[in-house]
Amino acid sequence: MTIALSTQGLCRSFGAVKGADNITVEFTAGTVVALIGTNGAGKTTFLNLVTGYLKPDSGSVLLGERNITGMEPRDITRLGVARSFQIPQLFDQLTVDENLEVAEIIARHASTASQTKELARVRALALERFGLVPQRDQLAKTLPGGARKLLDIAMAVVSHPSVLVLDEPTSGVSAEEKESVVETVIELARGLNAMTLFVEHDMEVVAQYADRVLAFFEGRIIADGTAAEVLDAPEVRRLIVGTALGADGHA
Amino acid sequence: MPQRMLAGLSVLVAILAAAPWWMPPWMLFIASGALAKGMAALGLMLLLRGGLVSFGHALYFGIGAYAAGLLVLSGITEFLVLAVLGTLATLVLALILGAFVSRYRGIFFGLLSMALSMVFYGLLIKLQSLGSSDGFNLGGIHLLSIPMQGTAGQVPTYLMTLVLSVLAAIGIDQFLRSRYGLLTKALRDNELRVEYLGQSVRQLVLLNYIIAAGLAGLAGVLSAVAVGHIGPEMAYWTTSGEFVFMVILGGLGHVAAAFVGAGVLSAVQAVAYAVAPNSWQFIVGASLLACIVFLPEGLWSLLKRFGRRA
Amino acid sequence: MSEAVAIFLDGSIYAAWLFLVAVGLTLVYGVMKIVNVAHGATYTVGAYAAVSLCGAWAAGGGNEWGIYLPLVLAAPVVGLILGPILERLFLRPLRDEEETVLMLVTYALFLILEDSVKFIWGVDPYFLSEPYLLPGGIDIFDLTYPVYNFGMLIAATVVGVGLAWFLSKSKSGRIVRAVIHDREVAMAMGANVDRIYLAVFSFGCALAALGGALTAPTVSVIPSMGVEVIVLAFAVVVIGGMGSIIGALLGALLVGFVRAMAVHLLPEAELFIIYLVMATVLLVRPSGLFAPAEARKI
Fold first, then answer.
1. Which residues of A touch B (CB under 8 A)?
2. C209, C79 in Cβ contact below 8 A?
């Protein structure tokens, strides 16, 4: 059971607000972990801290055995942590194919010769599995919301990362497309044995796809376990899930 | 490259190569200058494709020219040496300055590049030893045993400028078709994503910056040889403005566009000087505005459209 | 000793001139986020307008000392004519373009205006020496200083204080300050950005024209006089902080004194030292040495 990613006493404040309050957690390779919590609870802060977008005030982030605390995002990516964005960050003036090619070119810089063939394979796989083949020669800016999200994630996946960080992979995706997006992404991630961390507000999605769920509140992890365990936990029900449980299972 | 475009460009180059036989000397002189400036504009185009607008590109144009000038003053008149050392000087300076400058974007990059060119200009203007605002003449330059100045040198200089321009165009075209070209395009589109995919944006910017500078430097050397005179105005902000205008006029669509822009501007300037010397800035300014508003992709987009319909 | 005094006086006078020339530029950038290259051309038009107005005054038998009236009036005249034309016709339609594109647009306008000046006034230089010579000179130590230059110092002070009062005390001034700080919030609170832009730009033109008008008596008025001035104005504005009036003042003082020292102590450095400072500031503290505090955006 290898530890793909871990943090120790991770702290980060924004003025008086504690974005991350002494977070210590370990993630096993190949698992799919969902982060839940209300807005401002610290989920995105946590993602930003492990991907290098933010530097912690104290504490450390380890990728496997390696201390990546304070490293630049691009160096962290090159070590195998890829991320997707809440608002898809695409190259709008390039075609879908070119978007993926850019991702592959950059990933190739960081990999060995034997890995480059693998990158091409993963890229083709992502293109196919995410249903982007028909649009491969279209400019990214012409893609509808769901496809934009998928392309954003596909670009992250191309580098065959050991850790895949997805920031709200279903936000902006229509209700009909939601399940297929998540299913496609998780399936591909599992196929690549990437440890997947994703922020999600839809509890049904969480229940169905996550191996493990972390519930955040005011910068701390207040619950950690299987989906069933966490979603039923009293503090979680009170603070996150139960406050305004709609028919569709949204917090 | 589509067949028709390749054919069209080959014809154009052939016509230009035959120029010594059909152009009168005064036109050949202007053509040499236009090609040299087109090379500088080509470098600027590369920067613009990466999303950076430099208002101080003339710095490297001036450095190249003055490097050649200093070499000539110290007795070196072999063109190959001037070209190589002049370009080398700009590359080295660009590496040093680029390390700092590559951190900036947008208007700050523009103003910083302008400031640096004005530092150089300010230095030149006050240096009596280099002729201050008058500059000085360069004479006796030759390529091996072929003269490159005076009446005998006009044709060799023109042909050399043409050859180097074509080589530069081909080189940059290849660069743009390579993965660096795609990365440059991506850079202009979404820097954040490029960085998050694992590529240092600064490195990419620096690479383009150095190449652009080198082209401007070589262009400066060629200009110095062709005109036989260098002066601080070569590094002035209005010269930088000319290069920007050439790129806007030609558009970013193709390497040849930079030369189209240079050619058109030089032609307009030549005609305007002769016919309406106090209106040419008006014409240039109005054309710049027209381009920005109506032809944001430059004349090249017009040529492409025309070519497609024909 | 007299050298130090000379440096101090030269520096102050040059700083005053720089402030006059640069303050309009920084104001326009602060409010509209436009780097207005045409500022240099408005400066030139102001100089020419001063020549014409003063010429008409003298020809009309106006009082000798009254010549300062048309001299100064050139500013609002130019501001009220050129300002609205440039802002409405060229800047407003293109308002959503990038900063660099707008800068190119103003560069195009600069070129157009420069030749327009030639159309109207011709290419030969004009001289407007009466306002400059009239007050005579004053001896300080062993050097004679034209009193006019001290007049410019006073003018710069008046403009600076007036602007500072307007921005901090008057209601419109506070609205303008709100727009400088955060345009979107100001709009959300009901500020009529269109009208403010028109007013501020025209005012900026008037300030540029004032700079030109007050400079006219000290130089030969030629169509290209704005070319050198605009880059100097950029330097001052960048050094002080783009969009900051105080910055323009302090930037002007810094550049003024640095240049005065160079002129007296190391003449070769006179020009490049200014741009070296500009480049250094951009490298070390791009927002300028005295930039306004950026509103913290969440």
1. 51, 73-75, 77-78, 83, 89-94, 98, 101-103, 105-107, 109-110, 155, 159
2. yes
Our CA-based measurement puts residue B64 at a distance from the nearest CA of chain C, in whole angstroms, of: 19
> In the prediction, which pLDDT does A246 show?
46
Looking at domain C2-284, its CATH architecture is Orthogonal Bundle (1.10)
Tally of structural domains, chain B = 1
Taking 60 as the threshold, does the pLDDT of residue C297 lie above it?
no
Q: Which of C272, C260, C281, C245 is nearest to C20 (CA)?
A: C245
Give the contacts of B215 (CB within 8 A, at least 6 positions apart): B39, B40, B42, B43, B46, B168, B172
Residue B11 belongs to some domain of the structure: no
Q: B183 and A93 in contact by Cβ < 8 A?
A: no
Inter-chain residue contact C275 with B100, CB threshold 8 Å? no
The percentage of chain C sitting over the pLDDT mark of 70, rounded to a whole number, equals 97
Separation between Cα atoms, residue A132 and residue B203, nearest integer Å: 31
Q: Which chains touch A (3 or more CB pairs under 8 A)?
A: B
Which has the closest alpha carbon to C234: C180, C278, C283, C289? Answer: C278
Q: In the B/C pair of chains, how many CB contacts fall below 8 A? A: 120
Asked whether residue B54 is assigned to any structural domain, the reply reads yes
Cβ of C104 within 8 Å of Cβ of B279? The answer is no
Reduce the secondary structure of chain C to three states and give it as a string. Answer: CHHHHHHHHHHHHHHHHHHHHHHHHHHHHHHHCCCCCCHHHHHHHHHHHHHHHHHHHHHCCCCCHHHHHHHHHHHHHHHHHHHHHHHHHHHCCCCCCCHHHHHHHHHHHHHHHHHHHHHHHCCCCECCCHHHHCCCEEEECCEEEEHHHHHHHHHHHHHHHHHHHHHHHCHHHHHHHHHHHCHHHHHHCCCCHHHHHHHHHHHHHHHHHHHHHHHHHHCCECCCHHHHHHHHHHHHHHHHCCCCHHHHHHHHHHHHHHHHHHHHHCHHHCCHHHHHHHHHHHHHCCCCCCCCCCCCCC
Per residue in B140-179, pLDDT tens? 888 888 888 888 888 999 999 999 999 999 999 999 999 9
Beta bridge partners of C137: C146
Mean pLDDT, rounded, for C78-101: 92
Gap between the Cα atoms of C288 and C8, Å rounded? 24
Residue C275 has pLDDT above 50, yes or no: yes
* Domains observed in chain A: 3-244 (3.40.50.300)
Binary contact (B197, A90; C-beta < 8 A) = no
Provide the shortest C-alpha distance from residue A138 to chain B (in Å): 15
Q: Residue C102, class by beta-carbon neighbours within 10 Å (0-12 exposed, 13-18 middle, 19+ buried)?
A: buried
Note whether B192 contacts A: Cβ–Cβ < 8 A: yes
Interface contact C105-B292, CB threshold 8 A: yes
Q: What is the phi/psi pair of residue C293, to 5°? A: -65, 130
Q: ipTM value of the model?
A: 0.88
Q: Distance from first CA to last CA of chain A, Å, rounded?
A: 33
- Residue A158, pLDDT > 50, answer yes
> What confidence score (pLDDT) does residue A244 get?
46
Q: pTM for the complete prediction? A: 0.89
In a domain, B52, yes or no: yes
Domain that holds residue B84: 22-235
| C235 vs B contacts (CB less than 8 Å) | 115, 118
Hey, are the CB atoms on C103 and B107 less than 8 Å from each other? yes
For residue range C17-59, list pLDDT tens digits in order: 999 999 999 999 999 999 999 999 999 999 999 999 999 998 8
Over residues A2-49, the pLDDT tens digits come to: 888 999 999 999 988 888 999 999 999 999 999 999 888 899 999 999
Nearest CB neighbour to B192, from listed A89, A103, A109: A89
Top pLDDT among A122 and B301 is at: A122
